[in-house]
Design a protein that fits this description.
Layout: H1 2-17, E1 23-27, E2 37-39, E3 51-53, E4 60-63, E5 72-75, E6 80-85, E7 89-98, E8 104-110, E9 114-122, E10 127-136, E11 140-142, E12 148-151, E13 167-176, E14 178-186, E15 191-196, H2 212-215, E16 225-229, H3 237-242, H4 245-250, E17 258-261, H5 265-269, H6 274-291, E18 295-299, H7 320-331, E19 334-336, H8 338-353, E20 358-361, E21 373-379, H9 381-397
Parallel strand pairs: 1-2, 15-16, 15-17, 17-18, 18-19
Antiparallel strand pairs: 1-14, 3-6, 4-5, 5-14, 6-13, 7-10, 7-14, 8-9, 8-13, 11-12, 20-21
């Protein structure tokens, strides 16, 4: 009761002086660490309170005694999701995972299946402390004084996404996820990497779809760097401007931040040529980013799964990759040639094995999927993970300034020798949909 009363005072004060940005949650049973908010299996999300589990079915608390904070935990036999009302910004999240009298295995993703921690196994009696850094966003465009000056024009399907909902949502997944505590604090110093692009970059919410953008955070050192993915399915450079997505970024970019730009698939499919505004807009974005003190990085669009009779990838992107390469050279900006790296990767896999990287699944593999899925543009989690490794490889091999922020989780990757798909670890989320993303 005392802990709850103390939190009520904190909450009232935070609402009076501005929205609360720091939280300390003790996951478990009745024993609660001093200064922490108690979270138990019945703590269902309530927007008025500002936190809780999306679904409490299947949750259970286990108390091993001993330490108040780490002696008990919450676990489940299925993925579970914890949400917190937070204002837009970057946050460090400290997690205590494990079991003081057992073992555990936890994968942590945030928002729309953004990969943060993968297959964290603890030995008998071990508790590990892990930190992740997360970007939380909303659709309001604000000026430097924080005043609303516009809004991002979201598509109807985006309104269901977990990354435009004014919440931070953490997904705890895997064979034996055991969560002892969660501490959330603002991070005002991390360099932010803003991602712009289409369905091959977006944080895809639904299995089996995925993109390299949502795998990228896994490979960066937390606290130092945070990935802010603003990509959306079906977008062209022009549409990204028309829907004010880029305006949102312009009003947030700080000196030292990065702007990754990958467009081409939909620009080409929309009937545009590289001469009908594509080059002009790219140059304008580069100039604007530089004026704001940010670092623009161009990323060529990856290939589709289209092979010729000699098992070589066919270019289906016209001159868009070449246009981006030329602009990078002319404007003296860094280029990640994902187009070339994906060609190497897909040819190493070969026409048949490459299907394992794309959304190729027989009928009824997922709910409400009466027909087979055969998509040569969009990736599943394995394909997205391999492409993210290609992006990181380019950063490392070119010795770009971001190289010093690459985590030790990244080992030297050779796209000529892709990872074995059978060894790829990805426990599926509960969100599944067979509907293809916008764009092709």
């Amino acid at each position: 009761m005392k802990n709850g009363f103390s939190f009520l005072i904190v909450l009232v004060c935070s609402l009076y002086f501005g929205q609360q940005t720091t939280f300390k949650f003790d996951f478990g049973g009745d024993r609660v660490e001093k200064g922490f908010i108690p979270i138990n299996p019945t703590s269902k999300f309530d927007k008025k309170i500002g936190y809780g589990f999306m679904d409490i079915s299947g949750l259970k608390s286990i108390d091993r005694g001993e330490n108040t904070l780490t002696g008990d935990f919450i676990t489940s036999d299925k993925p579970f999701y914890f949400s917190v009302v937070l204002p837009e910004g970057n946050y460090n999240i400290q997690l205590n995972l494990g079991d003081s009298k057992g073992t555990s295995e936890t994968t942590v993703r945030v928002e729309n299946r953004r990969l943060m921690l993968n297959d964290i196994k603890t030995k008998q009696g071990e508790i590990v402390e892990k930190q992740i850094t997360v970007h939380v966003k909303d659709s309001i465009i604000r000026n430097q004084n924080g005043e609303k000056i516009g809004i991002v024009k979201l598509k109807p399907r985006e309104r269901k996404y977990l990354h435009w909902d004014n919440l931070l949502t953490i997904e705890f997944n895997d064979k034996a996820p055991k969560v002892c505590s969660v501490i959330i604090q603002p991070n005002k110093t991390a360099k932010t990497i803003y991602l712009t692009g289409d369905s091959t970059v977006v944080d895809a919410q639904y299995e089996p779809w995925a993109s390299w953008g949502q795998m990228l955070p896994y490979f960066f050192i937390p606290n130092e760097v945070v990935i802010a993915n603003y990509a959306e399915s079906g977008e062209t450079l022009k549409a990204f401007e028309d829907r004010h997505r880029i305006d949102k970024i312009w009003n947030k970019l700080k000196p030292g931040d990065y702007l990754f730009i990958q467009f081409g698939h939909n620009d080409q499919k929309a009937g545009n040529s590289t001469k009908s505004g594509y080059r002009k807009r790219l140059k304008e974005w580069i100039l604007k980013a530089k004026q704001l003190g940010a670092i623009p990085v161009l990323v060529t669009s990856m290939n589709r799964r289209v092979f010729d009779e000699n098992n070589k990838i066919v270019n289906t992107l016209d001159d868009f990759p070449d246009a981006m390469r030329e602009i990078a050279k002319d404007e003296k900006v860094d280029l990640i040639d994902l187009n070339a790296l994906s060609k190497t990767l897909f040819e190493a896999l070969g026409p048949e094995a490459a299907k394992k990287a794309f959304v190729y699944y027989p009928a009824n593999a997922y709910p409400n999927q009466p027909t087979a899925l055969a998509d040569d543009t969009h990736f599943n989690p394995y394909g997205a993970y391999e492409l993210a490794k290609c992006v990181v490889k380019s950063i490392v091999d070119q010795n770009l300034t971001l190289k010093k922020y690459i985590s030790k989780k990244y080992k030297n990757f050779n796209p000529n020798k892709p990872d074995d798909v059978e060894e790829f670890h990805w426990p599926e989320s509960v969100f599944m949909e067979s509907l293809k993303p916008d764009g092709n």
